[in-house]
Amino acid sequence: MEQGSSISSKVIDCAIEVSRRLGTGFLESVYESALCVELEKHGISFRQQKALKVIYKGEVVGNFVTDIVIENKLLIELKVVSKIGIAHKAQVINYLKATGIPVALLLNFGTPKMGVQRIVHQYNETEVI
Q: In the chain, which end has fewer C-beta atoms inside a 10 angstrom radius, N or C?
């Protein structure tokens, strides 16, 4: 990997290596663990299965677990599906809102060519939805 490349690029390179070596057909947990091996190998700081709380008006209203969080700057959500759908993207946007992390990579290992979608969420408390 190039010295000056972004965190996203480094993570994508690691994910491509996992996809290239494992191919399709494994459970999501296998790809997640393999990706963590690659991230560690490349010196990328991460948290696997990070538990987070959903806060609404100062109250905890739910809990969820993200697949991987990179350096508290990039959220990684892995899927093993034939096609990424709107519900998958909505899940990632909700994770971004809940964490305050602005960017996520949605990685799909369910197809012969691994799918990558970069999702950016700019949350503004005053925005009307």
A: C
Domain of residue 103 covers 7-120
CATH number at residue 88: 3.90.320.10
C-alpha–C-alpha distance, residues 12 and 108, integer Å: 11
**Residue 25 gets which letter from DSSP?**
-
Res. 1: pLDDT tops 70: no
| CA pseudo-torsion sign 17, 19, 22, 23 | negative
Phi, psi at residue 53, to the nearest 5°? -105, 145
Phi/psi of residue 24, nearest 5 degrees? -105, 165
126 φ/ψ angles, rounded to the nearest 5 degrees: -90, -5
Return the residue matching tokens 């949605």.
106
Report pLDDT digits (tens) over 7-41.
999 999 999 999 999 999 999 999 999 999 999 99
* Phi–psi pair at 25, nearest 5 degrees: 110, -5
